[in-house]
Amino acid sequence: MAQTNVNIRMDEQLKKDFDKFCEDIGMTMTTAICVFAKKAVREQKIPFEITADDPFYSKVNMEYLEKVIKKIDSGKSKLKEHKLIEE
Known about the structure:
mainly alpha, 3 helices, 0% strand
């Protein structure tokens, strides 16, 4: 199969850390990226979960907010004004 080059940019420290990780598990960075690409193409998705660290964006909170918004939009609930709590 024909080979081609792919150039990517990343933070210098991330590259060093990733290179060390790949070395520790016995593969090159090229092999690791090819494994990722093959799995992504085969599964037609990113082959791992990507999440936000902020719990505000969690599935449970987003579902709760959607319910509250529907209640407000339908007139079943009113917005309440609260004081700002600063820590």
